[in-house]
């Protein structure tokens, strides 16, 4: 495969001169969709003037639209970006609805068109202003019951959690939490109160080996990208050999230099899963590497990714230490989202303190949360938890039944436990309404 030499100047990625703007304006993105050439996938072609971060933006849009990328071909040498994605819906089917296809094209175009607010520069903040809620970012040492303690502190400080995402990996934890004031339902802006919230949460998140980090901002963010950044900054990729003994199968990641073309070639093989492509591209971008060419194949149980990269300054990998760091960071990016534990889904009417009560029950029954997604839609709470016992073992059936009896048999659903029966279809969703949670609490 012959590749043209790319621009090795970092200014080509961050330039804001009038000529660069003119080129982008005269060459607007072209997104075309082909539903005839492939029998089992919809093909999306993206052509655009090149810009640092554009690949991540396109992959991010596809991921947010819940499309599954089966294959991809990437080429972005020089001033032009050309990508081909073979995608399906979540059930593995081609997308045939014309209105959905037009929506996909529109979302991609808006995300990379001249004047769009995507993240083309290393200098651009990922947080944008919003008055709906206050964002709290936390990183620190993971331990059993951590989410329960954090949510209890927020409840005691009169904060209502409207959304949250929590990741744990390699004994580290990161969380992005959106909160509002309990009484007003608005974002919290009082500087003294925000300082008090930060200090209390930092104390809870603080571990023995490293200090915790707490950030409060008025804004909205792409949560999953921010979590990758936070865990990367927290060096969750550092792992001792003894920790590997109990780890999941290690992804196969290699980095070699192609000296004739001054590229570094990154290859990855691992078990396929949703959002894998986003996770790896996100990490390479945030480590300030540019993907000039690449191919992705996930048709089967194993995913294969190959990228020809250079650092943003135009150089290939130039030391053994840098090569090892890329491998470690990509392994971590692949592993962070791997769900360790049993999946529990909670759906019920939202109220202040709900997250605190639910996670307290998990903790009291000896469970720890390894990953969590918390959302509110209207007046309803839609939460997903991945849990395991504190020893790292699978959750016993009797423990699950005790938790569901306390929370509500139809409120909390168990997903994927081999011995757990499905809930009876005729069971009324109002039969169990958090009876123990709504009882008056003793003072």
TrEMBL record:
Domain ACT: start-end pairs: 135-217, 343-422
Pfam families from the xrefs? ACT
Give the matching InterPro entries: ACR1-12, ACT-like_dom_sf, ACT_dom
GO terms (molecular function) for this protein are:
amino acid binding
Keywords tagged on the record: Repeat
SUPFAM superfamilies xref list: ACT-like
Q: Which domain of life is it from?
A: Eukaryota
Q: What exactly does this protein do? A: Binds amino acids.
Protein name (Swiss-Prot/TrEMBL): ACT domain-containing protein ACR
């Amino acid at each position: 495969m012959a590749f043209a030499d790319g621009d090795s100047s970092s200014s080509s990625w961050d330039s804001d001169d009038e000529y660069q703007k003119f080129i982008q304006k005269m060459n607007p993105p072209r997104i075309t969709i082909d539903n005839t050439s492939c029998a089992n996938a919809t093909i999306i072609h993206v052509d655009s003037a090149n810009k640092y971060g554009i690949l991540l933006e396109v992959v991010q849009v596809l991921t947010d639209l819940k499309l599954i990328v089966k294959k991809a071909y990437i080429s972005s040498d020089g001033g032009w970006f050309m990508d081909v994605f073979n995608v399906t819906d979540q059930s593995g089917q081609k997308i045939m609805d014309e209105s959905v296809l037009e929506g996909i094209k529109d979302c991609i175009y808006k995300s990379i068109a001249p004047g769009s607010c995507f993240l083309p520069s290393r200098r651009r903040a990922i947080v944008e202003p919003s008055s709906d809620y206050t964002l709290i970012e936390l990183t620190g040492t993971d331990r059993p019951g951590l989410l329960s303690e954090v949510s209890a502190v927020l409840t005691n400080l009169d904060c209502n959690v409207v959304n949250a995402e929590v990741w744990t990996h390699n004994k580290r934890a990161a969380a992005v939490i959106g909160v509002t004031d309990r009484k007003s339902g608005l974002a919290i802006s009082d500087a003294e109160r925000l300082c008090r919230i930060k200090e209390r949460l930092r104390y809870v998140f603080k571990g023995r080996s490293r200090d915790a980090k707490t950030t409060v901002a008025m804004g909205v963010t792409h949560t999953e990208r921010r979590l990758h950044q936070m865990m990367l900054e927290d060096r969750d990729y550092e792992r001792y050999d003894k920790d590997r003994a109990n780890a999941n199968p290690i992804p196969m990641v290699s980095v070699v230099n192609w000296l004739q073309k001054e590229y570094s070639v990154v290859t990855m093989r691992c078990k396929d899963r949703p959002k894998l492509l986003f996770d790896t591209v996100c990490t390479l971008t945030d480590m300030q590497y540019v993907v000039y060419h690449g191919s992705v194949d996930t048709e089967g149980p194993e995913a294969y990714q190959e990228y020809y990269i250079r650092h943003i300054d135009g150089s290939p990998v130039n030391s053994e230490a840098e090569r090892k760091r890329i491998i470690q960071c990509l392994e971590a990016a692949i592993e962070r989202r791997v769900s360790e534990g049993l999946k529990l889904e909670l759906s019920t009417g939202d109220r202040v303190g709900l997250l605190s009560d639910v996670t307290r029950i998990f903790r009291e029954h000896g469970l720890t949360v390894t990953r969590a997604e918390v959302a509110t839609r209207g007046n309803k709470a839609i939460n997903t938890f991945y849990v395991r016992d504190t020893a790292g073992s699978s959750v016993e059936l009797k423990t699950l039944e005790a938790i569901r009896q306390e929370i509500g048999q139809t409120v909390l659903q168990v997903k994927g436990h081999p011995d757990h029966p499905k809930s009876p279809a005729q069971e009324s969703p109002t039969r169990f309404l958090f009876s123990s949670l709504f009882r008056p609490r003793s003072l």
